[in-house]
Structures are given as C-alpha cells and as structure tokens.
Design a protein that fits this description.
single chain; alpha/beta; Aspartate Aminotransferase, domain 2; Aspartate Aminotransferase, domain 1; 2 domains; 7-stranded mixed β-sheet; 4-stranded antiparallel β-sheet; 14 helices
C-alpha cells in the first residue's frame, strides 16, 4: 500500500470536516436554504479579504477571476502595466493583450521580486495607465511581491487601479485589502481556502467600480456588474457551485476559529521550517529574495534532475509536489505548505526529500534537514 500525500501548490488537501459538509444532500440554488448559506459566506469572505467591499464568488478557477479582472476594467486600447516575474505574471500580459489592451510589461528575473521603484517610474512616465497587474505570490518561482508598497505607489493615481492575483497568497500571509488600498484582489478555492478547484473570488473597490462603468469590453459570464447586483441579494447570476459554497461555509468557520493572526502565524512557521529544513539538508532555495510563505521553490543540486526529484517523491513515496515550469523545468522543484497543513506535514516532506536525494545518489546526511525543521517547529 502506498499512502498518498498532497503537497502541490494547488489543489491542496481538503479537511475531513469540509468534505463531509460538501457530501450533504444537494439543495436548489434559488431556495431559501442557499440564501442563508450564501449570506454567511459573503460576510466571511469580507473578513478574510479584510475589506468592506463585497467579494464576488464565481464558478471558475482562479484564472476566471483573472480574466474578469481584465475584461471588466479595460477597454480595447486602454493601457495596462503588467509585472512578469514568472509563469503567472506572464498570464497577466497574455490576458491583457487578449482583450485588446496596450501593454507595458515589466520583466523581472525569475526568482526575484519586482522593485516598486520600477512601477513608480513607469506610472510617472505614462500616467494614462489604467491598471497595474501583479501577483502577491508568484507560484512558479516561490517569490512574494511587495503589494503593500505597490498599493502606496498606485493609490495617488485617481484613474489607475492595482489588481493583485492573490491566488496563492490570500489566507497565507497578511493582505490588508482596504487599509493598503488594493483595488482588486483575486483568489481561488483550491489553495489556502482548502477546497477542491472550482471557485474564484474577487474583491472590487469603489475606485475599480468607477472604472468598470466606463469599460467598452463586453463580458457575459464574467460580468462583474451583473454578479455584483445579484450577489448583494444573496443570489448568483448563473448556477453556482453549490457544494463548494457549502464547503466554503465550513472552511470560513475553521479559519475564524483559528483567527487571521493564528492562520498567518502558522503558515509563517511552516514556511520557515520548510526553508531551513531543506537548507539543513544541503539544498539551496531558488528565490533570491522575498520567498513566499505559500510554497518553497528549491533548486535541484548540480547533476540531479529536478524532475526526477519531483517524480520520485510521487512514485516512491506517494507525495505529489510540483516541478519547475518553462526554463526552470528540471532545475527546481516546489513544495506547498499552504492551507490544511501542520508541523508534521513539514517533517514528512523534508524527510521524503532527503530519502529521494539519497536514492538518486546525491550525498545527503539523512535526518540533517529534518532535525533543523524539528528545532524550528519545537521553538514555536
């Protein structure tokens, strides 16, 4: 028997309580029962996003939320600034071009965070830019961008919004949507929210809604204004993912019981233990700065194929992590610790990495990384 472990950066493990909630008998989405559940979920999402604004719930992956955050705020010919520091920053550029925007792209070396000054300089050079698109956590590289600093830069521009893909950030580390002045924040169900894939969430500021009123692009399914009108009545414009929303109700109860500071503190501890654990085993982190607490991107040792590490974790030990993407394929592997994770998940992951490396002929002292992780986790 090979027990399976899920340590990929999405989907992430789903708690048993949530699975049981989603297994309840189906009910109709126009019935009063749904109205009650959805009202509770909407309030909980405001708490999680740290916003007074309504958070739209869409039956989609996180990319659906990203697409809607382009089509609802940019008309063809509008200017957009995208931060491309990885595979998902690249997606912002592709989406903006798909909807006819004129794109200025800031390319950032993979493994580094964007320098906020480059964004400030770009906006000063062209104040006609309507939206700045960035990741809070670039999943392909394991790097976190300083969205607080970017919000301070964008805020003075009255007709420019900051759009943040927080798909592997929200519920992992502190993002103060309203306090920092972030206009649009997006996340997905299958990351820190501990649900199966299928829901996207988007918070929209008053400033962003004002921009949406002027947009000439047409969106049918991802029409934020239509969804906003319906969801204020605890209904959705189209058929919602009812079971996932019921599961989300349970997730939000669990997160509220832990508290935001408790969630952020646990995630930070696990991330620190993972980073120092793999370094204790003689490995190097891929991020050169600002590592994300959602996942750890690890450089494969010289002479060892990162894809072989990723594959052997799954085949030999039943542990699904993730490999590198594009030019990083074979050079790094990535291990998630967001969502439904605790201390022994980290110990198990570091131990498995050491065993795989040993099996591939790389000189590693078994237990060296595990011991370092244990020290950090015991010092809590």
């Amino acid at each position: 028997m090979l027990k399976r472990y899920l340590l990929a950066p999405g989907p992430t493990p789903v708690p048993p309580e949530v699975l049981l909630a989603m297994a309840r008998p189906m009910f109709h989405h126009r019935a009063p029962e749904f109205d009650k559940v959805f009202a509770e979920v909407r309030d909980g999402l405001k708490w999680l996003f740290q916003t007074k604004n309504n958070v739209l719930v869409l039956a989609a992956s996180g990319t659906g939320g990203m697409e809607g955050s382009v089509s609802n705020f940019l008309s063809p010919g509008d200017k957009a600034l995208t931060i491309n520091g990885g595979k998902f920053g690249e997606r912002w550029t592709k989406l903006c071009k798909t909807f006819g925007a004129e794109v200025t792209e800031i390319k950032v070396e993979w493994g580094r965070a964007v320098d906020p000054q480059t964004v400030a300089d770009a906006l000063k050079k062209d104040p006609g830019i309507k939206a700045v698109y960035v990741q809070a956590s670039e999943t392909s590289t394991g790097v976190a961008h300083d969205v607080k600093a970017l919000a301070e830069i964008v805020k003075p521009y009255g007709e420019t919004i900051l759009v943040v893909d927080a798909i592997t950030a929200l519920g992992v580390f502190d993002i103060k949507t309203d306090e920092w002045g972030i206009d649009v924040v997006i996340t997905g169900s299958q990351k820190a929210l501990m649900l199966p894939p299928g829901l996207a969430f988007v918070s929209v500021s008053d400033k962003a809604w004002q921009l949406a009123e002027k947009v000439k692009n047409t969106a049918f399914y991802f029409n934020f204004k239509k969804e906003h009108e319906n969801q204020q009545k605890n209904q959705t414009a189209y058929t919602p993912a009812v079971s996932l929303i019921v599961g989300l109700q349970e997730v939000l109860k669990m997160m509220k019981a832990e508290g935001l500071e408790g969630v952020f503190g646990r995630q930070a501890l696990l991330a620190k233990a993972m980073r120092e654990g793999v370094q204790g085993a003689g490995l190097a982190l891929f991020p050169k700065e600002s590592p994300s607490d959602a996942l750890t991107a690890i450089s494969a040792p010289e002479g060892v194929d990162g894809q072989a590490i990723y594959k052997n974790l799954r085949v030999q030990y039943g542990m699904t992590a993730a490999g590198g993407q594009d030019h990083l394929k074979g050079k790094i592997f990535r291990v998630s610790h967001m969502g439904y994770m605790d201390r022994f998940d980290i110990i198990m992951a570091v131990a498995a990495i050491e065993m795989v490396l040993k099996g591939l002929g790389h000189p590693v002292k078994l237990g060296s990384g595990v011991a370092k992780a244990q020290e950090i986790l015991m010092a809590k």
